[in-house]
From TrEMBL:
SUPFAM superfamilies: Metallo-hydrolase/oxidoreductase. It comes from Amycolatopsis xylanica. Residues 49-263 form the Metallo-beta-lactamase domain. This is Glyoxylase, beta-lactamase superfamily II. InterPro entries: Metallo-B-lactamas, RibonucZ/Hydroxyglut_hydro, Sec-metab_biosynth-thioest, WH-like_DNA-bd_sf. PANTHER family: ENDORIBONUCLEASE LACTB2 (PTHR23131), METALLO-BETA-LACTAMASE SUPERFAMILY POTEIN (PTHR23131:SF4).
Length: 356
């Protein structure tokens, strides 16, 4: 331990990021000179935390991602910054990898309080506009896709899962101060990052390449232990898996970097994990196509017949939200196979069917 802070009985220590602790354990972890990883809590068990990265030269401070706008996350971020000699008011800018709430919403909340600037990928604008619309249920696009893929039981499960829950975060979907376009961008005096558009997880996802330090801030595009969901966003895209595989190849073509992901531990090689993810999707394409050849007709039927997560869980054994992600991910694979001419697809009475 170098130093630490304590407030309201919570201690935050400044430690070397050497993987001796679980990645989600609270603390401030020194990743590289002037770069610190601060895991912040999430309100569910599937993903325990999100990594926020502080970049500082001792006088100026920028953050990659911001965390979910939760009281506990705000407190731990404040304590973490104090451990490196800074405070929330010192944050000059947030560079946000994508529009999901665990990356974006705390940036908006802190901007109101302290005037920090917020930057987000330019292709997130359609989804952000829908997220801020009080007349739109946040998952309308996903419900329509589930209906297209004959997954009515999942729609009913979602209804039971969310019940009459009201949206309470409409005010946290304000527009950023800056729409990020691909290219080099100054972050601190003497420190630049390359903004790289990596669609797939969302349409406007970006990663940040610190070539001088050999670091790649990968957001949710490349994760060390899980396969990122494909295309979960208010405004769905036509072929999100094609986008995602293309983005993996873009990252794979860069010089190899240390991987600084949004969920999971810092890892030594982006290339190694990108290769594993590419192989995973090659395997899923073969398996899902094989299910159609064996007689399945819809994405829902295929999803029911597959194992999910590394534990090979059945679709019905998962909660409604993850059932939805599984069916839509299946559809993304089947749609790509159809677009590539390996399957046929046809919409009959509002349901999409696939065949050899």
């Amino acid at each position: 331990m170098v130093k630490g802070t304590r407030d309201k009985g919570v201690a935050v220590e400044l430690l070397e990021d050497d993987n001796t602790r679980h990645w989600a354990e609270p603390g401030v972890y020194a990743v590289a000179p002037g770069v610190y990883r601060i895991p912040l809590p999430l309100p569910h068990d599937a993903l325990r935390a999100v990594n926020v990265y502080a970049i500082t030269d001792g006088s100026e401070l920028a953050l990659i991602d911001s965390g979910w706008a939760l009281d506990e996350a705000r407190e731990l971020l404040s304590l973490g910054l104090k451990a490196i000699g800074a405070d929330l008011a010192d944050i000059g800018q947030f560079l946000v990898t994508h529009v999901h709430r665990d990356h974006y919403t705390q940036a908006v909340a802190l901007r109101r309080e302290f005037g920090s600037k917020v930057a987000l990928g330019e292709h997130e604008e359609p989804s952000l506009a829908l997220a801020a619309d009080p007349e739109v249920f946040g998952m309308n696009g996903q419900i329509e896709l589930l209906r297209l893929h004959d997954a009515q039981p999942v729609i009913e499960e979602l209804g039971r899962f969310f019940g009459d829950a009201k949206r309470t975060d409409l005010d946290l979907w304000e527009y950023p101060d800056e729409w990020l376009a691909p290219g080099r961008r100054s972050v601190l005096p003497g420190r630049e990052l390359d903004v790289i558009h990596t669609p797939g997880h969302t349409a406007g996802h970006v990663v940040f390449d610190d070539g001088a330090a050999g670091l790649l801030f990968t957001g949710d595009h490349v994760l060390p232990h899980i396969t990122p969901s494909i295309g979960f966003q208010p405004e769905p895209t036509a072929l999100p898996l094609r986008d995602y595989i293309g983005s993996l190849k873009v990252v794979r073509a860069l010089p190899d970097r240390r991987m600084l992901p949004a969920h999971g531990a810092v890892s030594p090689s982006v290339h190694a994990r990108a290769d594993a993810l590419l192989e995973h999707h090659r395997d899923r394409l073969e398996k899902m196509g094989g299910k159609i050849l064996a007689g399945a007709s819809t994405a829902y039927e295929v999803a029911l017949s597959l194992g999910w997560t590394r534990h090979e869980r059945k679709l019905g054994d998962m909660d409604a939200f993850n059932q939805m992600l599984a069916v839509l991910e299946t559809a993304a694979h089947l749609d790509l196979l159809a677009a590539d001419g390996r399957l046929r697809s046809s919409d009959v009475d509002g349901v999409r069917h696939y065949s050899a």
